[in-house]
Design goal:
Layout lengths: L4 H12 L5 E12 L9 E17 L4 E6 L8 E4 L13 H12 L7 E7 L9 H17 L5 H16 L6 H8 L4 E6 L5 E5 L7 E11 L3 H18 L13 H7 L2 H25 L7 H15 L4 H12 L4 E5 L4 E9 L3 H14 L6 E5 L6 E2 L2
The structure holds adenosine-5'-diphosphate and magnesium ion.
The site of adenosine-5'-diphosphate has 16 residues, from β5 and α3.
């Protein structure tokens, strides 16, 4: 349920006893293509979605931060003093918003004390980056209320720092970049080596298309260790190929790599190198206004993650295969793998059939029911009241 700005303002007043100075919203994101390329200095192509997180905020005269969320299990305000905050000191969900204010300080910007109330329509833990939506909404609010005038590219880094050092999750810049630099009807073509971003037209609804998210609701226990192992394989591959990162390798270098690397490392490297090429192909397709042509690239991306990178699961393969059989134009797992969600590009008219087919296939396989819903490219982060 989406609360209106007025409803959230009233709730803020109930919780804090005062009126907010303003409301700021930041969207979640979905990654169209470009998986495990970010930490290899490569390319990703996410887009901001219509689901977003809104924060109502008011400046305080002291240096305290008080934060509450409509989604947090208890209603209590989490309170900290900005002057005595240390890396990793905040536990639980409040580490995200408070981490942003801490990271601003680390980057040399002075943030005033704040009261914050968070509300969100981004599903949590479904691979749509509710975490970045929360960070970016708070970062925009703090930026405006402090008058610091921090450029958005720097706010991306501040969000990442909060997540890396206060929350302790080793994530890249993709999610924050999509949320802060995204725009309605566009994807964000992000170069993770330079941090440069460009908007690429993605008018799915005009083309009669929708992107379905199929959340398998299964995350395997070894997801964290599997992610770390893949990062190590990529580092090793780059070292053996004498390049600073796998980004430096082109598809034409793979023949040489095949001779130098053992079979498994070679397959890991081949995924990253071909995935970077697929992202660039996807951008070409979108620049030519042909979003339906993304389909084969999504299919190839999934095959590469399944066969070369080894991060798919039975549930994700079932979701992808069933969606394709039921008429999806393309489908692939999205996110880090070892569970989580898949995406499927579909004609709007085919979406109900695909959804029913996936639900049926999961039921037949005696798997927990997946959650299937559509997403469309939405606006980037902005002040809303
Ligand atoms: P994802 O970003 O894919 O949704 P993460 O595990 O990275 O999943 O982030 C989810 C966490 O972010 C939640 O467990 C919670 O701690 C925090 N979070 C996100 N949105 C909210 C919110 N609206 N209120 C409180 N906490 C939130
Ligand atoms: Mg996240």
């Amino acid at each position: 349920m989406r609360r209106t700005p007025l409803e959230l303002s009233h709730l803020f007043t109930e919780r804090t006893g005062r009126e907010p100075d303003g409301l700021w919203s930041a969207p979640g994101r979905v990654n169209l293509i470009g998986e495990h390329t970010d930490y290899n200095g490569g390319f990703v192509l996410p887009f901001a979605i219509e689901q977003s997180t809104t924060v109502a905020a008011a400046v305080r005269k002291d240096r305290l931060v008080r934060v509450a969320s409509t989604l947090a299990p208890d209603d209590a305000l989490v309170t900290v003093d900005l002057d005595s905050l240390e890396e990793g000191a905040v536990q639980g969900w409040a580490a995200y918003p408070i981490g942003v204010l801490w990271a601003m300080g680390q980057r040399g910007y002075r943030c005033p004390g704040l009261d914050l109330l968070v509300d969100s329509t981004v599903p949590i833990g479904a691979g749509l980056s509710s975490s970045a939506a929360l960070e970016c909404a708070v970062a925009l609010a703090a930026n405006d209320l402090s008058g610091a005038g921090i450029p958005r590219r720097e706010l991306v880094i501040i969000g990442q720092l909060a997540e890396n050092l206060m929350v302790g999750a080793p994530t890249g810049i993709m999610d924050q970049a999509a949320s802060l630099l995204g725009d309605a009807g566009h994807a964000v073509f992000l170069d993770c080596r330079s941090g440069d971003a460009r908007l690429v037209p993605l008018e799915l609804d005009a083309a009669g298309l929708v992107l379905l998210v199929i959340d398998t609701r299964v995350t395997h226990e070894h997801a964290t260790s599997g992610y770390a192992a893949r990062r190590r394989s990529c580092e090793l591959g780059a070292e053996l190929m004498s390049v600073p990162s796998l980004r430096e390798l082109a598809v034409g270098d793979l023949a040489e790599a095949a001779g130098l690397l053992d079979e498994e490392i070679f397959r890991r490297v081949r995924h990253v190198v071909t995935e970077n090429a697929r992202v660039q192909d996807a951008v070409d397709v979108l620049d030519r206004g042909r979003p339906a042509d993304l389909g084969p690239l999504l299919v190839a991306s999934h095959a590469s993650m399944r066969d070369d990178f080894g991060i798919s699961t039975a549930e994700l393969d079932l979701a992808v295969d069933t969606a394709l059989e039921a008429g999806a134009l393309g489908a692939r797992l999205t996110g880090g793998g070892f569970g989580g969600a898949a995406i499927a590009l579909a004609r709007v008219d085919d979406a109900p059939t695909i959804r029913a087919a996936v639900e049926q296939a999961f039921a037949t396989a005696a798997l927990a029911a997946p959650v299937v819903f559509g997403v469309l490219p939405g606006a980037g982060a902005a002040r809303v009241a």
